[in-house]
Amino acid sequence: MPEITEAELKKQIEKSNFSRLYFLHGQEKYLLALYAKKLIAKAGGTAFPDFNLQRFGDTASIDEIASAVEALPFMADRKCVAVSDLNVEGLRAQESAKLEELVKSIPDSTVLVFYLPSVEIDYKANKKWKKFIALANEAGVTVHIGKRSTSELEKALCSAAAKRGCELSRQNAGRIIRSCGNSMQTLFNELDKLCAYVQEGEITTQTIDRIVVKNLEARVYDLSKAIVSADYDRAYKVLDLLFQQNEEPVSVLAVLSSAYVDMYRVRMSVQGGFGVTEPAKHFDYARKEFRLTNAERDAARLTTSILRQSLQALLNADTALKSARGDRRIVMEKLIAELLLIAEKERVG
Fold it and tell me: Which of 59, 187, 248, 340 is the most buried (most CB within 10 A)?
């Protein structure tokens, strides 16, 4: 059977119309775990769960899983065997052969669920995962659960807030996303905090800024905005906060470099007669197109020469950090000073 959609998976769970095999994978781990929980609970049933629902983690052998799959259900039409985070990539040849045999011979009385609540797959590079997905589609169904778009996340947050007796505007939902990133687990954790704080009524911008914890990308974005605005005090306050929170300088530099790369790509795209979102056709901006529109706004303050000089400064800092020459904090402080001076020297307007 081919890969099915999330909507089709929901229908199968609701109607108890199960395939023999499910493989749930993808980047949105919150939804993946939620679907897996519902599927496993429904497929395992309520009769004698100690016998008819067996769970295995990433340390289980293929022989252990096979024994559970082959065992008959106890006083029920079917049983469920659930396996989380199976390390297909790390299996030896003999274990891979056993897994292939198992997938091809699942009895009708068993629903075997493989799901990846933690493991990420490199879909392009890893041949073992490609082969396993193909096998799973032949024996049952696979469901890819990808990241949600900003619009979908905004709607989900507004709806979840309403269910908790609070009011959240789309604009403020977007503000939460910009602060926390697009992980639904993180977003709903922050929403729970906001609703507990507000209890009922509107979740305001002020409340969001006071309660929500910004992720690394959001804090470094604040840093880049301060730099391109030549706001010395703000830039060093944000950098100091990042050090206080024990963020790795290499990680901070990587995110800061990405912000400048976005600005440069947008600048070159516009100068070449293309649109702001043209880079998304050539680079990985899936579900992150907003970065390009933000980059267009920020890059308007800087000349092309400034962007090129800034990218060179970032490259020099990256070399210094990775070669462990000197104090890592000093390297970052010198970089911020250099970027600020470059921005101040040739500011547009």
Answer: 187
